[in-house]
Amino acid sequence: MNTVLAIAGVVIKELYRRKDFYVLFVLTAVITLLMGSVSFFNDAEIVRYVKEIALLLIWISALVIAIGTTARQIPAEREHRTIFPLLAKPVTRAQVILGKFAGCWLACGLTLIVFYLFFGVVSGSREHHWPLLNYCQSLWLQWVMLGVVVAFVLLGSVVFAAPSSNATISFIVVLGILLLGRYLNQVALQQPEPLRSIVYGIYFLIPHLEWYDVRDLIIYDQHLVGWLDCALATLYASVYMALLLFAAWLVFRRKALNQ
Amino acid sequence: MKRLAPFLVLLVLLAAGFNLATLLQGRTDGWSRRGQSDNVLSVLLGDGRRLFANHFFVQADVSFHSGYYPSIFDQARAVKDTRHLTAKEGDAAHEEHEKQMNFLGPPRDWIERFGRHFIITEHTHLEGNKEREILPWLRIAAELDPQKVETYTVAAYWLRDLGKVKEAERFLRQGMLRNPNSCEILFELGRLYYEADHNAARARKIWDLALRKWAEEETANKEPDPLKLDQIAVNLSRLEEREGNLSRAIQLLELAKKAAPHPETLQQQIDDLKQKLATPPPT
After folding, report:
1. Less packed terminus of chain B by CB within 10 Å, N or C?
2. 3-class secondary structure for A162-191?
3. Which residue in A38, A48, A186 is closest to B133 by CB distance?
């Protein structure tokens, strides 16, 4: 466990040494504040468009950080040949996978906390109320979703040759699930057999990341998601994380590292 | 001298930048005037901006429904027009819209059933002055597509409802400048003068002009919306009736009858007015 945490610690340190997070945070803040400063029909009480823009930017930034950070972990270790002293410690390959995953996931959690603090301050200063439980729930669900994304990209990083191709494919897959995942069953029903069964199969196979996008509930001041549903969604994501990490380990344990 | 060289280069670059800025200023003015557009956005995006404008108009509708809105996969059985954006509970358009927005249906599988715990599944409209939340999207839509008339009328309707009469008038006038032949904008402007300013004379002038514009469109075979004629003529007829011009009110109702979906209701009103006209006023 200590080994895993030590590897995770290195990944987190890398996050705050690199500029990615700062650039994305500053961009999010500047765009949100600029949009917030625009006056529409001299009405200072309009707020939802600011929340909408801010949350969209937070989602984009979090995905960029999660995929960007994870995609370069193992390839960078191999390229700089630091993977050899790391594995000679002795550290098992399973611990490397788990450590990298934990580091990237925790790093995503830290960035989300900063982003949501900013969001809370901006929206609270205009709305004059702070639905903290809703924010916490949204943060938690987004973080859980990012766990699946990180595990998926980690699997990609041991399958694909270059981090850039892994990042691009991961982006397409994640965005595809977020935008279309919910409607694949409707699409399937309109197809003839055997395409219908194939599309329906994909629908049941993919992790439904779109569940974790509860931005609308925050933007439109809706009810909280039930805590049991939250717990079940967390369990569902945990199964996918375990599955993807196991697959990553299966590929990584036999992979030649000196190529 | 060697020490000063970088600063001199910096100064030269600064001067060059300043000169370029003064030179380009004249050209950017030209960009703004090109193609009768009034901002650089239209030059940069061309006709593609209409696509974005439509997206923002839809976004206003999404906001009006607090996020409960059909996706492109549900749209075959959902919202067809935008009349619900300016309709209140009890209106015919509202009732029809209620039926259209029942697009969700029963869940098809456990994934869909569970996923519904994380989305908005109830059809509601903004109320209690929250309608202001749709205004930014309409403003952006108007900037991107100045020729989309609905953007002005919907925004003005809600601005009037929120008591922002001046802002509504300014926005409608902006729409008039960009769409000088729009009878819809003229109708909304007349409504603003009549209902918010209680200025019957001004409203009458505007609605008369709206009727003329509608007739011009019909003469030019542009197939204008007959419902618009019905709306303008009926409202103007009510105004004339209140002002005591009963014969003009009857004329207008006769005109509206040609375009009305239920002409029998209007005929009843015409008969009432005719009876009123025939009855001598009490001495």
Report:
1. C
2. CHHHHHHHHHHHHHHHHHHHHHHHHHHHCC
3. A48
- Whether B115 sits inside 8 A of A41 (CB atoms) is no
Which pair of structure tokens corresponds to residue B191? 């409504």
Nearest CA in chain A to B160: A41
Residues 6+ away with beta carbon under 8 Å from A104: A11, A66, A69, A70, A73, A150, A154
Do B66 and A217 lie within an 8 Å CB cutoff?
A: no
State the sign of the Cα–Cα–Cα–Cα dihedral B261, B263, B265, B281.
positive
Q: Where are the domains of chain B?
A: 43-178, 181-276
Give yes or no for residue A24 having a pLDDT over 70: yes
The CATH number corresponding to B181-276 among 1.10.287.180, 1.25.40.10, 3.50.50.60, 1.10.10.10 equals 1.25.40.10
Q: Say yes or no for a CB contact (<8 Å) between A41 and B120.
A: no
In this complex, the residue of A40, A212, A229 whose CB is nearest that of residue B136 is: A40
- Please write the tens of the pLDDT for every residue from A148-177: 999 999 999 988 878 899 999 999 999 999
Q: Cα B34 to the chain's mean position, in Å?
A: 26
Angle at A240 between CA A239 and CA A245, to 5 degrees: 100
Delimit the domains of chain A by residue range: 2-253
Q: What phi, psi does B252 have (nearest 5°)? A: -70, -40
**Nearest CA of chain B to the CA of A59: how many Å?**
16
Q: Smallest Cα–Cα separation from A222: which of A51, A18, A5, A79? A: A51
Residue of A nearest to B167 (CA): A41
Sign of CA pseudo-dihedral B106, B108, B111, B112? negative
Alpha-carbon span B10 to B238, nearest angstrom? 72
**Does the beta-carbon distance from B67 to A216 stay under 8 Å?**
yes
Closest Cβ opposite residue A225 in set B73, B117, B164: B117
**Structure tokens belonging to residue A134:** 């809703």
Grouping H, G, I as helix, E, B as strand and the rest as coil, residue A40 is: strand
Nearest to A157 by CA among A16, A251, A55: A251
Q: Which residue of B has its CA nearest to A179?
A: B71
Mean pLDDT of B179-206: 87
Where helices occur in B34-148 by DSSP H, the ranges are 40-45, 48-64, 92-100, 110-115, 135-144
For the stretch B139-187, pLDDT in tens is 999 988 888 889 999 999 999 888 888 999 999 999 999 888 888 899 9
Residues B158, B131 contacting (CB under 8 angstroms): yes
pLDDT at A231: 94
Decide if B167 and A42 are in contact by the 8 Å CB cutoff.
Answer: yes
Q: Which residues of A touch B171 (CB under 8 A)?
A: 41
Which residues of chain A have a CB within 8 Å of the CB of B125?
A: none
For the segment A81-117, what is each residue's pLDDT rounded down to a tens digit? 888 888 877 788 888 899 999 999 999 999 999 999 9
Nearest to A236 by CA among A115, A145, A137, A149: A145
